[in-house]
Every structure is written in structure tokens, then in C-alpha cells.
Amino acid sequence: MLSLGYWLCFLNLIFDGFTNATHDFLKARYPNTSAWNVILGMNLWDIYGIFEAVCFCKKHPDATWDIFLYCCCGAIGQNFVFLTINRFGSLVNTTITTTCKFVSIVMSSLLSGNPLSTNQGNGDAFLWYSLDYHIKSTSSGRSCRDCREKPCEDEQLSTVLN
């Protein structure tokens, strides 16, 4: 029987896959949509949560500042996620977030003094080699020098940034 943590990781991967496929679909279907249009659309779906949050903050006013800071951090994070998806695609975003999760697992293990089990170490090694293989197999052969000399043609990003 798998523990709750494994099930949560499994669900996280499923939702990441669904979300990234949806972003790719929307980007292909509506190519002139900016990252902020997508953020607005997603946040409009969460509008019902505002009423619940206000009721919660009325009952627990000491939590209001922490919730506000959490929301600000989430908004900043959404900008990075959606700008990355808009500029580089969802596969690059998935690679970044998976690498971040991998690094946080290893750092957590090192800093807490709890060694990884054999299965956890094997899983981390598999993840590292998979990411390495993915990066090498999907690179377009374009070097950073190419990007400095002739920037990529991406009207959406220049529109978003201006």
C-alpha cells in the first residue's frame, strides 16, 4: 500500500500534465493571448473563494496579514509561471518546476539530517537522469551566443513586456 505522500505526488503529476496540456491547447488556439489574460481567466474561476476568505478573515483577523502575503507571493509566482509558459512552452515550465521539487527534496534531506532511503535515492537519480536526457534531447541546438546576436522572434513576449 502506497503512503499518502506517494499518492499526493502522483496526483500532482496528473494535475501538472492536465494543466500543461490545457495551456498548450489555449496557446495554440488563441495565439495572441498574453500571459496576463490567462492569469485573469484563471483567477476569475476562483472568485467564489473570495467570499469564503472574507468570512474566514472575519472569524480569524490575526490570519489576514499572512493570507495577504501568501496571495502576493502566489501572484508573483503566477507571473513567472505564465510568462515562462508563454515564452518557452509548458514543457520547459514543467522541467523547471520538477527540478525545483527535486532540489527541495534533496536539500530538505541534507539540512534535516534525514538520509534518503534507497528507493528515494533511486527515484531522485532517475529524475535527475530523466531531466538531463530531456534537456539534451529537446535542445534545438541554438546556443546562448545565438540568442545574444539574434534574439528569438517572439511578438507575444515583447507585447507583454512593453
Structure write-up:
The chain is mainly α and 162 residues long. It has one domain. 81% of the residues lie in helices and 0% in strands. One of its GO terms (cellular component) is Golgi membrane.
Attribute tags:
162 residues, mainly alpha, 8 helices, disordered C terminus
Task: Set down the secondary structure blueprint.
Layout: H1 4-29, H2 35-45, H3 48-59, H4 64-88, H5 90-112, H6 118-138, H7 144-149, H8 155-161
Helix pairs in contact: 2-4, 4-5, 5-6
Concise overview:
This protein is an all-alpha fold.
Proportion of residues in extended strands: under 5%
| Overall 3D form | flat
Whole-number count of domains: 1
Fraction of residues in helix: over 70%
Number of helices: 8
Most strands sheet: none
GO cellular component, one term: Golgi membrane
GO molecular function: antiporter activity; UDP-galactose transmembrane transporter activity; UDP-glucose transmembrane transporter activity
Membrane topology: Multi-pass membrane protein
Pfam families: UAA (PF08449)
